[in-house]
């Protein structure tokens, strides 16, 4: 009873744009992430500007050092590793007919090395890496043409890696388009533009692209498991005041809207009311309804980091649960203001599994905080061990309650450039990387205390979590 199910996938997760570096090497084009210097919170640039430091242009040089890093992950016992294929390595502009062979070769070699080490690739097809050219020349995902560019990209990678990759996710945190539309949907909102109109139209095109990609992928290899991916950090009512409770539920539906379409194959009953309330008119083609029905996802991947509170009167549209709200006095907080709530993860698992009865995959969960390098060179990150241990115990409890959970990939298993703030000092890793916020450092990799702890968790299939 104190172990996880047989075949549970244990591993870690990163995104190409946060680890690879080599942003303009071997034919790679610019993605939306390449022009964001200070993280998603401060996304203000729409081109690479001279004299500005972009941490992710070099990142931790995983592009050159992936064998070293994968060897460390294999030492921890990873059975899977989640990363993304950077779209602009394959199609530098996004609308080309022929792919960039140098980009394809890199992922050939990366996945081959993973498989050699016994690590199953888990691949995000689009992880905040929409080609910048498609934003500049087509308007990003508000333009239906992106569906066909995306599908051409999918056809190339599905065919190329059909014998190397089994697990795929179509879009990273697709519901994040509400609060980071440029990164998540390649959308530039004009100063006086209708943000919600753009967000919902772009989302529709992404739903169609995902559905068609699922259908295509299953034809190329029927063993493919293709999931959606959402940010599902949860939200509680601040009080038992009915307006707080109702508003909390309405906020959660802003996230469920996305999984409802991608898992059920049709727009939920509350969608029409939302569109009317905010004067949204979604342009759809006659065949779209049928496409959505035929292309539902195989599983739900999601990120979970924190929870927050909803108070009556807060703006509901334009954000998603867990990314706004007031502080919960019963919870501790990270230096970046994220509240630590392991039970919230158990709640999310139960809510989502009860809603869809489909497999869940926790593909992001981790603690971003400041690590101290001791005089002996060690990093005594007991706080990270406590964080992961408490969350994994709640995952186990959710499984005991009937949730079908495929696996767990700890976010930022090696120190990476923070997506939210563009910093290196906000460290998640079980592996330390010697690089600071200004790009200084040797890039030396060093095991933290949590490295050996996580290795034991994996080796015992979770049993070590309960030995104390």
From TrEMBL:
Highest taxon listed in the record's lineage: Bacteria
Active site: 364
Gene3D superfamilies: Glycosidases (3.20.20.80)
Keywords recorded for this protein, A-Z: Glycosidase, Hydrolase
GO cellular component: cytosol
A molecular function GO annotation: beta-glucosidase activity
Pfam families: Glyco_hydro_1
Family: Belongs to the glycosyl hydrolase 1 family.
Protein name, per record: Glycosyl hydrolase family protein
Species, as recorded: Niallia taxi
